Amino acid sequence: MNSFEKNTALSNESLSNARPDELAHYPIIHHQPIHWGEMDAFNHLNNVVFYRYAESARIGYLQALGMFDGSMVTVLAQSSCQYLRPVTYPDTLLLGVRCQRLGNTSIVIEYSYYSCAQKVIVATADAVIVRLDSDGKDKLPWTNEERERLVALEASVGHMPEL
């Protein structure tokens, strides 16, 4: 078995099994295959791609909470990523997404990027999202119902964000 077949088999095996222990307390797991064109000149996943993956994972998290009903706009106020290990093609990343802190009009989301080929967390990240009204002009507080949905989603995996 060559390295491509081995890494692909590892990725497929990891995808078919339960979530890894490292992601046990993340309610949303975004599956992200690595594409050859996302590699940089140093033969590893380009750093900007991690932010694209986080965006897709974040949208999945907000959709799970029912927050794309047109009543609000979310704006990315801050984001950071800590690269722990290089990622190379072929691989599949599992991005664990959860709420670290829920403010009055903002949410701090944290991510863990798990490599199926390496079987380890290869990056961590966070983002601050600010909620605005549908016109995008004024900050919009989270409703009690939205807070309850978020806490219930997080509690489903034994995690409690700072409120």
Largest sheet: 5 strands, antiparallel
Please state how the strands of the largest beta sheet are arranged side by side: 1-3-4-5-2
Average pLDDT works out at 89
Low-confidence stretches: 1-17
**Beta-strand percentage range:** 25-35%
Q: N-to-C terminal Cα separation, in Å?
A: 50 Å
Number of helices: 3
Based on secondary structure, the structural category is alpha+beta
- Shape label: globular
Series of H and E elements: HEHEEEEH
β-strand number: 5
Any idea what the radius of gyration is?
A: 17 Å
What helical percentage do the residues reach?
25-40%
Question: Overview of this structure, please?
Answer:
With 163 residues, the chain is an alpha+beta fold. Helices cover 27% and strands 33% of the residues. The protein has helices spanning 3-16, 47-64, 144-155; strands at residues 28-33, 72-83, 92-102, 106-115, 120-133. Strands 1-3-4-5-2 form a five-stranded antiparallel beta sheet.
